[in-house]
Specification:
The complex is a heterodimer of chains A (238) and B (254).
Chain A lengths: L1 E7 L2 E7 L4 E5 L6 E2 L10 E6 L2 E6 L6 E3 L2 E3 L1 E3 L5 E4 L2 E7 L9 H5 L11 H12 L11 E8 L6 E4 L3 E5 L6 E2 L10 E6 L2 E6 L5 E3 L2 E2 L4 E2 L5 E4 L2 E8 L1
Parallel strand pairs in A: 3-4, 14-15
Antiparallel strand pairs in A: 1-2, 1-11, 3-5, 5-6, 6-9, 7-8, 7-10, 10-11, 12-13, 12-22, 14-16, 16-17, 17-20, 18-19, 18-21, 21-22
Chain B lengths: L1 E9 L9 E6 L4 E8 L4 H20 L4 H21 L7 E2 L1 E7 L2 E7 L3 E6 L2 E4 L6 H7 L5 H6 L19 E6 L5 E5 L1 H4 L4 H9 L4 H14 L6 E9 L3 H8 L6
Antiparallel strand pairs in B: 1-11, 2-3, 3-4, 3-5, 5-6, 6-9, 7-8, 7-10, 10-11
The chains are: A mainly beta (238), B alpha+beta (254).
Chain lengths: 238, 254
């Protein structure tokens, strides 16, 4: 059996049996092991099973993750290892045979630059864990809409259904600008899994809620967009 | 609209085999790229199967429709999965597959995995596929920042792959194209080492897709070439009289 003992200054706070193949550690409430301390990042680290081994990975936390006093990015765990997160210690206890051997095989499969797929069960668990947080998700089920407030365009309202929506005079632009001096392309809206992102094109000045946007900006419900003489309102609907 | 495209694949400097495959079928308006994985060279089998099955399916089906592209990819998935189940040396093989198909001024985009497609338009580069990796799923749900994701040791772990299960969910997108649009498809061997802005620069700085491909592959190898590198660069041109004439005379652009 495998378990984790959560300690603070040598005092045992909790014993957590490891029944899943993925355990997250952090300050936020959606973690499996929640540590309410400012030295701990929101999503600080995770402990997961790969092949026969458990590994701990730091999720690029502010204060880092240490195993037996050594700062790690990712490290295999064996029986008795102590993971230090902030001022809390997570002691890894495992009576399984694997927990006492040197897990060389896993190390080779650790941080990699090559494409790989992990055990589908672990993958499913990770995804299940991820989708618990669906409320944060901003795209997928929602659709973006732009309503023209000022300026000359071919319609008053546009649903942003395509992957990329162009704003400009070009015939392929969904939000079609009128007028001789209108630019071919003034801005683009990219609908990704992470939400709607706007960026300016052809060096045109783009403002959202009055502030100039450089690079890409993630649009939020109610944002006011200004570019190439038009002013529009962005909204998200179910 | 018509596509002028060039592709290049290289095994890189570290890997023994090239498990990437790509295809450019101008008659079908099809551009596709697959990055295979698996032991005993089975990754190469998987990526080749994915491309071949998709191509054959579209040749038979004729006209482009987003659903066709998606059906072709699902068929490829099933076939690879069954092959992997039936032969022990192919066990566990899988592949990514990213495909674009042009029909008039509509472009269908379909993908599974982390091989990317970019659109370059109006001096801006935009990624038009979402990586199917565990890490990017977490970024999408706000559990991790982009900066954390870029440094994560797990960023190559795919959340969706062809050939691993009997069913697969395919991401489908549509896009209205215009003359002058340029597209880039690449495997992660390229996108891991070269930034969006660098891709934009290389593709923008020449009118010839083959030169841009050479530059990008060279750059990836200069930076270590840790993985197989594959890239397709495509330019869209309006179908004009000259092109039609060349077509009649039997000229083929390479």
């Amino acid at each position: 059996m495998t378990k984790i003992i959560l300690k603070f200054k040598d005092k045992v706070l909790k014993e957590i049996p490891v029944e899943k193949e993925l355990i997250t550690v952090g300050r936020k409430a959606d973690n499996d092991i929640e540590i309410d301390n400012l030295a701990v990042s929101g999503h600080h680290a995770r402990i997961f099973k790969m092949e026969d081994w458990f590994l701990v990975e730091d999720l690029n936390s502010l204060n880092g993750t240490f195993v037996n006093g050594k700062m790690i990015q990712e490290s295999p765990l064996k029986n008795g290892d102590e993971i230090l997160i902030g001022k809390h210690v997570l002691k890894f206890i495992s009576s399984d045979v694997f927990g006492s051997k040197e897990p060389e095989a896993v190390l080779k499969k650790g941080p990699v630059s090559e494409t790989m797929v992990i055990d589908s069960k672990v993958q499913q668990e990770m995804l299940a864990q991820i989708s618990k947080d669906r409320s944060i998700s901003s795209s997928g089920e929602v659709m973006g809409r732009v309503t023209i407030l000022e300026g000359s365009t071919d319609q008053k309202e546009y649903d942003l259904t395509e992957r990329m929506t162009s704003i400009g005079k070009e015939s392929s632009a969904k939000i079609r600008l009128k007028g001789f001096f209108a630019p071919k392309f003034a801005a683009f809206v990219n609908r990704s899994k992470e939400g709607y992102f706007i960026s300016s094109a052809s060096g045109k000045e783009l403002r959202v809620n009055g502030a100039v946007v450089l690079g890409k900006y993630r649009l939020q419900d109610g944002d006011i967009i200004q570019v190439a003489g038009i002013k529009m309102d962005f909204s998200l609907k179910e | 609209m018509r596509v002028i495209a060039h592709g290049k694949t290289d095994k890189g400097l570290v890997r023994k085999e090239n498990e990437d495959t790509f295809c450019i079928e101008e008659d079908l308006g099809l551009l596709a790229i697959a990055d295979g994985m698996g032991g005993h060279a089975s990754g190469e089998v998987a990526s080749k199967m994915a491309i071949e099955i998709l191509k054959e399916f579209l040749e038979k089906e004729g006209q482009a429709l987003p659903e066709r592209l998606s059906s072709g990819i699902k068929l490829a998935n099933r076939t690879i999965y069954e092959a992997a189940q039936s032969q022990s040396q192919l066990n566990g093989m899988g592949t990514t597959l990213t495909a674009l198909q042009l029909d008039g001024n509509k472009l269908s985009i379909a993908h599974v995995g982390d091989s990317r497609a970019y659109l370059i338009r109006g001096g801006v580069i935009e990624q038009i596929t979402d990586d199917h990796t565990i890490v990017s799923e977490q970024v999408a749900r706000g559990m991790m920042t982009k900066e954390e994701a870029a440094r994560s040791g797990m960023r190559s772990i795919l959340s969706r792959t062809l050939g691993i299960a009997s069913e697969v969910e395919v991401d489908m997108e549509e896009l209205t194209v215009s003359e002058g649009d340029r597209f880039v498809l690449c495997s992660d061997g390229l996108s891991e080492l070269i930034s969006e802005d660098e891709i934009l620069y290389e593709v923008h700085s020449t009118k010839r897709p083959n030169l841009a491909c050479d530059e990008l592959v060279n750059l990836a190898n200069q930076r270590g070439g840790q993985d197989n590198v594959t890239v397709i660069v495509a330019h869209l041109h309006r179908e004009n009289l000259l092109f039609r004439l060349l077509g009649i005379l039997g000229w083929k652009r390479r």
